[in-house]
């Protein structure tokens, strides 16, 4: 199994330097990861650094809280794609989800998906803040809006991906959407467990050590 193509090689720290981002891209090319995942201001640099490779550029929208307006998320998405992003990881409005304003959540995902066009849209639902019912409703929203992925976490909240959540998501979405496990995937065994549970993509800042079997 080519585990490298499961990995979105991630650096989203607020103080990430340009040299660290360049190193991230070099590592992504060396290991032929699926993508690098960076904040929007580094999309253009990554596009330049990854030219000639098949490593994609992924960026985050409404990050990390999800509380931006829909119009703001749409603008962010349009700007990111203009700058060279191939994939968009958008945080939902978690307050809407927990208040069961599911039509609001669905309409926002649809709006961002429309701006994405052919580009991949992953929907971050921040599982550590959700009840089981919330998680099931999140899956329903992602399916209704026809997003490409449901993603567990930003990595900036109270917890990250768990095998239990991936298992729950897989039960809910089946083959109708893909699943990204993000946050807390620290070892090779963690990664394998997530993939066995149904994850199609792994978001991690530890891509190199994972590929070294650590």
Describe the structure.
- The protein is α/β, with parallel strands linked by helices and 214 residues long.
- The chain is 44% helix and 17% strand.
- It has an eight-stranded parallel β-barrel, surrounded by seven helices.
- It is globular.
- The model has no long low-confidence stretch (mean pLDDT 97).
Rg, please?
Answer: 16 Å
* Mean pLDDT rating: 97
- Uncertain stretches: none
| Count of β-strands | 8
What class do helices, strands and sheet pairing give? Answer: alpha/beta
Q: Number of DSSP helices?
A: 9
**Distance separating the two termini:** 17 Å
Q: What percent of the residues sit in helical stretches (DSSP H or I)?
A: 40-55%
The order of strands across the largest sheet is: 1-2-3-4-5-6-7-8
What string gives the helices and strands in order?
EHEHEHEHHEHEHEHEH
How is the main sheet built? 8 strands, parallel, barrel
Shape: globular
Q: Which range does the strand content fall in?
A: 15-25%
């Amino acid at each position: 199994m080519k585990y490298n193509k499961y990995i979105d090689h991630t650096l989203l720290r607020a103080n990430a330097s340009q040299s660290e981002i360049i190193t991230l891209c070099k590592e992504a090319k060396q290991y032929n990861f699926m993508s690098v995942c960076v904040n929007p201001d580094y999309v253009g640099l990554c596009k330049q650094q990854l030219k000639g490779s098949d490593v994609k550029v992924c960026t985050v929208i409404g990050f990390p809280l999800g509380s931006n307006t829909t119009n703001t998320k749409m603008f962010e998405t349009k700007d990111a794609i203009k700058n060279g992003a191939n994939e968009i990881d958008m945080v939902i409005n978690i307050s809407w989800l927990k208040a069961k304003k599911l039509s609001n959540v669905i309409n926002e995902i649809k709006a961002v998906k429309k701006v994405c066009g052919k580009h991949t849209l992953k929907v971050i639902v921040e599982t550590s803040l959700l009840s089981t019912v919330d998680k099931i409703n999140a899956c329903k929203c992602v399916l209704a809006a026809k997003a490409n992925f449901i993603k567990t976490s930003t990595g900036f909240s109270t917890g990250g991906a768990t095998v239990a959540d991936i298992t729950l998501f897989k039960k809910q979405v089946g083959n109708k959407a893909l699943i990204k496990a993000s946050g807390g995937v620290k070892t090779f065994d963690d990664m394998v467990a997530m993939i066995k549970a149904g994850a199609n993509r792994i978001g991690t800042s530890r891509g190199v050590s994972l590929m070294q079997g650590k």
